[in-house]
Amino acid sequence: MENPALPQRIVVFDGVCNLCEFSVNFIAGRDRAGRFFFTPAQSPLGAELLERFNIDAQRLDTVVLVKNGRALTRSTAALAIASELDGPWKLLGLFSLVPRPLRDMLYRIVARYRYRWFGRKNRCMIPAQEIRERFLEEKPAAAAGNGPENR
């Protein structure tokens, strides 16, 4: 079920994970059109979206891309995001040709060790000023034709 007040592309990420924070900043820096919005899994909106798509927030080991009312996870989400980034990053979408079980196996290895390899914080990331408007903690109020739902 799609909510018209929500943007078409929301990245739900682990807000205390350093690798996830790097990924959010990487995406935002290569998405000049501002198509992607972000919400930490620990936020009310993040928790609501995870629940809506039956993703266990307590065992979250994936980035989640909610796109047009559907949830994509693991390598499928990462490749869908990459395919919409500016520049050569779009070419990463070609890895969609690799069978998903193999892609997800590699994804799960990185996800399992992400805290050990990249560290974690005690609290959710605070977004830089340049991308703060693309962070959602709660459902945005419906805007009259110029809100994030139209991106």
Helix content: 25-40%
Give the biggest beta sheet: 4 strands, mixed
User: What is the H-and-E element order?
Assistant: EHEHEEHH
N-to-C span: 18 Å
Instruction: Work out the count of structural domains.
Output: 1
Low-confidence stretches: none
Strand content bin? 5-15%
- In DSSP terms (H or I, runs of 4 or more residues), the helix count works out at 4
Strand order of the largest sheet: 2-1-3-4
Described by the principal axes of the CA atoms, the overall outline is: globular
- Average pLDDT metric: 87
- What's the count of strands? 4
Which structural class fits the helix and strand makeup?
alpha+beta
Multimerization state: single chain
* Rounded radius of gyration (Å): 15 Å
Descriptive notes:
This protein has about 150 residues and is α+β, with helices and mostly antiparallel strands. It has one domain (about 10-125). The protein contains 4 helices and 4 strands, in the order βαβαββαα. It has a 4-stranded mixed sheet with strand order 2-1-3-4, sandwiched between helices. The longest helix is centred in the C-terminal third of the chain and has 19 residues, at about 100-120. The two termini are about 20 Å apart.
Notable traits:
151 residues, alpha+beta, 4-stranded mixed beta sheet, 11% strand
